[in-house]
Write a structure and sequence with these properties.
single chain, about 300 residues, alpha/beta, globular, binds S-adenosylmethionine
Length: about 300
Amino acid sequence: TQDNSNPAPASGTTSQKKVHAQVADHYNARPDVGVEKRKESTIFRLKSFNNWLKSVLIGRYARPRDRVLDVGVGKGGDLLKWSKAKIQYFVGCDIASKSIEQARERYRTMRNAPFEARFHAMDCYSEPISNVVAPDVVFDMVSMQFCLHYSFETETKARMMLHNVTSQLKPGGVFIGTIPDAYWIVKKLKSESDDKLQIGNSIYSIRFERRDRFDKFGSKYWFHLEDAIDDCPEYLVHFPTFQKLAEEYGLELIYNKKFHQVYEEASQELDFNQLLYRMNVVSENGSLSADEWEAANVYLAFAFRKKN
Ligand code: SAM
C-alpha cells in the first residue's frame, strides 16, 4: 500500500505543533514501498545494513517461543526477523496510526502467520502500555529500534518510556534497541568550526539550533536522512543519563556498541557474514558508499537485562 497524500510538513511551518504530532505526521507520511522499489533507493545499502544489524541484535538475544513487545514498531519492518527468530507472540505499538495499519497488513500477508500478533496505535511516551495490553501479559523481550531518542524530549517522557519497557518485562528479560550516539554527534559537531551548527554528508545531516549547551533532556536537533527522514525533530540521548535512569527501572546494561563495532564483530561469524550477502548489504556490485558508512556509524546498539 502506498500513500503519498500527506506530505511531511516542513519544520518551519509546524512550530505551533507539538513535537510528538510532528513525528507522527512525519512517519505517517512515509510511503511503505515494496522490496523492488526499495532497491532503487539512494540509501538501499544503508537500509540493508541497518536491517542486517537489527537481525544481528535479534539473533543474539531472541529465543524461540519468546513473547516480544516492539515499541515504535513503525510499519512492521522487523516482522520477518522476528519470524526467523521463531517467537511465539508479538505486540507492536507506534504513535503513527497509518504505520500501525501498514504493520497490521504486513503481518496479515505473512505466509502462514508464524506467531500471534497485536498492533496498537498509541503514544508510548505519554501513556502506559497497560492501556492497550492486558497487565497479565508478560514479555520476554522488548525491542525499540531507531525510536527511543524521541522520548528524550523530557524526563517525564523518558520515564514513561522506561515504565512501558519494564512494567511487563519478566525478570531476566532483555531490552534491545538502537539510538543515535549523542557522544559521537556532539564530538563531531565540536570538531567543526565554532560557528557551524550542522554535521553530515550527502546522505544525512544533523542540524542544531545552538551548540553552547546540551541538556540531559530536550537537546533537540533536526535530522535528515536521504530518502528516509526529511528534517524530523529528534533528541540527543545522553547515554550515562539513560543508563542511570534505566537502572532505576531495574535494567542492567549488558551491551553497548557503535554500529561499526557491531559490524566488525558480527561479520566474523559465519551466519551473520552470510546474512550480509542474503540481505544485500554486500553483493558482487559493491557495498555501502563511504558516506553511507559514515551515516551508519551515527548509531549505536544496546541491550539491557531486567534484574531478578
Ligand atoms: N522501529 C521501526 C524500524 O526500525 O523500522 C521504526 C523506526 S522509525 C525510524 C521511528 C518510529 O518511532 C516511528 O514509527 C515513529 O512513529 C515512532 N515513534 C516516535 N515517537 C513515538 C511515540 N511517542 N510513541 C510510539 N512510537 C513513536
